[in-house]
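Handout, section B. The chain below has 267 residues.
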Amino acid sequence: MNPSEIDLFHHAAFFAFLAAFAFGSSTVFGKRIVNHLDFKSTTALRFGITSLIMLILVLLTGEFFKIPQISGFQWKLFIVIVFTSGATAMFLYYFGLKRVTASVSTICELFWPLSAVVLDYILNKNVLNSIQIIASLILLLCFYKVVSEGQAKETTFVAKVIAGVKRGRLLGFPTANLDKKDLDIPHGVYLVQTKINDKIYQGLLHFGYKETFNEGPSLEIFIKDFSGNLYQKEIEIKVVKKIREVKKFKSLLQLKEQIKKDLQMIN
């Protein structure tokens, strides 16, 4: 096919372009949302917004009154899609998105079209044309750039210390609550380094939902061998490595024992 023959103003081409943009951007926006909401609420929000957008689109195009023309068999197919590759897949997607970076998740998503190409060749013996091959090579180059830059860049960020409810002091491990919640790292507990008054301190960073309380996500740091007031001060934090996932504990005693184990990871 000649590229000049592509009609970018055709409604099918427009919707395909719009779908591709939504497909890629949803991962980035989704990653930010799951830092503030649980995966179930995020899934419901995505389906709700999508339904609203489609309703507006249907009303604007005058297709709303064609809904009664949908057959019973087509409604059954819709229901199957919703509870398989629809809602169920989205639950798993956002559940996993809390545990990986947005860049890694995007790359994994892009293997979907790759699998389609492989299956199309196996089942239908179809092969890519020259334009599709060029597009695939560009996509692979993007893969390489994302992975190489992600490996080269250290996760370092600056955040302001804000007031908390002092539950860390209750446990015997006072922590500093931070105001930054949109980190592109998976939820978990991390070994970190922070620089205060030209001195490097080792510490633990908790990013995710409270482990014993039914509350929203938190970002807090325990700084080993530091005493002083950091309230309303900005500190720079370097993430060294992840040591465990965020867990749910039935009691404060269990959480306290886990913190003691985590502290053994600090040199």
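Note. The mean pLDDT is 77. Compare this with the example in section A.
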